[in-house]
Specification:
Oligomer: single chain
Number of strands: 8
Low-confidence stretches: none
Distance between the termini: 5 Å
Number of helices: 2
Largest sheet: 6 strands, mixed
Shape: globular
Mean pLDDT: 97
Structural class: alpha/beta
Helix content: 10-25%
Strand content: 35-45%
């Protein structure tokens, strides 16, 4: 399971010209589900994402996690994170989980986040437009 996390001052996701998820200060989480991922990996990744210390403390050092920084999260499914880009000029998606399984784990990840922090979401398998203002920019790739 892969999370590309971006520290943002604001982010939103739009489907069919309607904003369906929006946050201010916090994390935009682009989530990719791979074959073999399970609820245990999703739980561990959620803990890692929410505990990752990438927000500045009073001394300007990255010592605070999103909860300590009083932020929010926006979780957007992104199957392209599971792409194999090692060969050729076209990505292969054979490592990605099947859509039904990916959706189940995406929803499970979101529910784990919602237990701990204000969480907004995109729409699984929809054509989404994601807008963000990356703060820093600060972007990390986390994987379980």
């Amino acid at each position: 399971m892969i999370a590309l996390i971006q520290r943002v001052t604001q982010a939103s996701v739009t489907v069919d010209k309607q904003i369906i998820g929006q946050i201010n200060h916090g994390l935009l989480i682009l989530l990719g589900v791979e074959q073999g991922d399970d609820q245990q990996k999703a739980t561990r990744l959620c803990e890692k994402v929410l505990g990752y210390r990438i927000f500045s403390d009073s001394e300007g050092k990255m010592n605070l996690n999103v909860q300590q920084a009083k932020g929010e999260v926006l979780v957007v499914s992104q199957f392209t994170l599971a792409a194999d880009t090692q060969k050729g000029m076209r990505p292969s998606f054979t490592k990605g989980a099947k859509p039904d399984e990916a959706n189940k784990l995406y929803q499970f990840f979101v529910e784990q986040c919602k237990k701990q922090i204000n969480t907004q979401t995109g729409q699984f398998a929809a054509n989404m437009q994601v807008a963000l203002i990356n703060d820093g920019p600060v972007t990390f790739w986390l994987q379980t």
